[in-house]
Design goal:
This protein has 200 residues and is mainly α. It is built from nine helices and no strands. It is 70% helix and 0% strand.
Length: 200
């Protein structure tokens, strides 16, 4: 870990600060961990089982952009200039913050470095980037108002936490939850398609 302070303390201090909280600032403050921090923040809102409107699709799209850069092996997050200057907004900072902090603190209490060396390998980071892309795409393609986007989004959040905490056990839990969510979305989609064909 890059800091002796718990990650939850760093994140809450930054989110609650009076300074401008832009996407670009997030990347600058957290450095190489910015990938994981962005995944945690952006996918936390879709992971909340509450109506959030179309804003979740914007966050999922940004997550795909960030995770794709992980998959390509970048060490720092690149964002378009307009997006770098954009503030997180009250919905993300205020609605998602309690959800984020409860889970970050819980995982910090129950985690320890397991397989930490893996997270230092670029090939492993690339695989994790592909996994997060899959979860973000699955969340975005979930039927509207079905609540099915929650599981893949939560899986992405837990994968991001595993990267921060360097814990392969937490990573396995995130991959299992996210994969289960994607499989459920595909299954429901196939069932709906069969029903439509039957009705037609």
């Amino acid at each position: 870990m890059e800091s002796e302070r718990p990650f939850s303390v760093e994140l809450e201090r930054w989110l609650r600060s009076d300074e401008p909280r832009t996407f670009g600032d997030m990347s600058d403050v957290f450095g190489e961990r910015g990938f994981a921090v962005m995944i945690i923040l952006f996918m936390s809102l879709p992971a909340i089982p509450l109506p959030t409107g179309g804003v979740t699709h914007v966050l999922e799209a940004v997550t795909i952009l960030v995770a794709a850069q992980m998959a390509l092996g970048r060490r720092t997050v690149w964002l378009p200039r307009r997006l770098r200057a954009r503030e997180l907004g009250a919905m993300l900072a205020d609605k998602a913050l309690p959800f984020i902090m409860r889970r970050v603190e819980w995982f910090e209490r129950h985690s320890r470095p397991r397989g930490a060396a893996l997270f230092g390998h670029r090939w492993f980071t690339r695989i994790l980037g592909l996994i997060v892309v899959a979860f973000a795409v699955g969340s975005a393609l979930a039927p509207p108002f079905s609540g099915l986007d929650t599981l893949p989004a939560l899986g992405a959040v837990i994968v991001g936490l595993a990267i921060i905490l360097e814990d392969t056990l937490i990573l396995a839990a995130g991959v299992a939850i996210g994969t289960g969510g994607v499989v459920l979305i595909i299954s429901v989609g196939a069932a709906v398609a069969r029903l439509v064909r039957h009705l037609i």
